[in-house]
Design goal:
alpha+beta; globular; 151 residues; four-stranded mixed β-sheet; four-stranded antiparallel β-sheet; 36% strand
Length: 151
Amino acid sequence: GITTLAKDSIFMMPQLGVLAQVHPDAAMAVFLRDCLIHLGSCVAPRGVGKPGKPCFEFEISGDGIHEKGELHVGELRLIPLADGRKARITVRPARGFDMGEGPKKEVAGEVRGGTVGVILDARGRPLEFPQDEAARLAAVRNWTAALDLYP
């Protein structure tokens, strides 16, 4: 489905859990204001398919962005969307894939930007790695490049 990604910037979630037992409002205020760094959103359907076959089509628009296209099984794509920006996305999964509403059912929702952006993930779920070592390394290299992890 569509997932918002964030990280605990100051490693305070355990302590805030304890604080919430005594002062829930204070814990929530610190959590929302000071704790989370928004990384962005991830769009990833459930299902498996053969590499190179269609996984899903998408259309995303809003806050200075308008893109559409198709991802094939095994591909990742990064769409830059800055923190605080939002966009609307429509995803049409291919046969054998489910975005959370049932197989092949179109899903529309909002994605939020962040320090990473919007990740379109057509690797399928559960995530399967190629058995062949060379193919596995090539896949990981491609994923790393697609997300610009080590520029």
